[in-house]
Design goal:
By secondary structure, this protein is mostly beta strands. The protein has an eight-stranded antiparallel barrel. Strand 1 and strand 2 form a beta hairpin. It is globular and about 45 Å long.
């Protein structure tokens, strides 16, 4: 069983850093034929990003490679024990948040909204591509 609920490559189309220090709102378009659009508030002090950059974006319910949820005491945000690895080790930027809203659009499109403690994500695309996302807690994982 795969841990990833969503995984795609995106090309950043705009970076708006006018509203807040250290946080930018980026928009990006999927590089695949699925035509998914992403809008994301991101801490650019931790993860600098520029226009036209390609990033890999994944959403997962767990950080375990096999998709199994583990006991929180063994997977908390702490230094990993020797030999312990998870999905976060393969990514440059990780956030934990909650899927809180879905909106139906035209032509079988949907919008999925996720909050990461005030930083927001919106994925817009075909229902078939985004149907694995449910109203639950998820991890957002990004790498170059």
């Amino acid at each position: 069983m795969s841990a990833l609920l969503f995984d795609d490559l995106f090309t950043v189309t705009s970076v708006d850093s006018k509203r807040y220090d250290r946080v930018s709102r980026i928009t990006a378009t999927s590089n695949t034929a699925d035509d998914v659009h992403l809008t994301l508030d991101i801490n650019t002090e931790l993860f600098p990003i520029v226009n036209s950059e390609t990033i890999s974006v994944a959403v997962s319910k767990t950080l375990s490679f096999d998709g199994e949820e583990t006991v929180a005491s063994s997977t908390g945000w702490r230094e990993p024990r020797p030999g312990e690895r998870g999905l976060a080790d393969d990514y440059d930027y990780v956030m934990y948040g909650t899927v809180y809203r879905f909106e139906e659009g035209k032509n079988d499109n949907v919008s999925v909204y996720v909050s990461f403690g005030g930083l927001l994500l919106c994925l817009e695309g075909g229902y078939k591509k985004l149907s694995t996302l449910k109203q639950e807690n998820v991890y957002l994982l990004i790498r170059r």
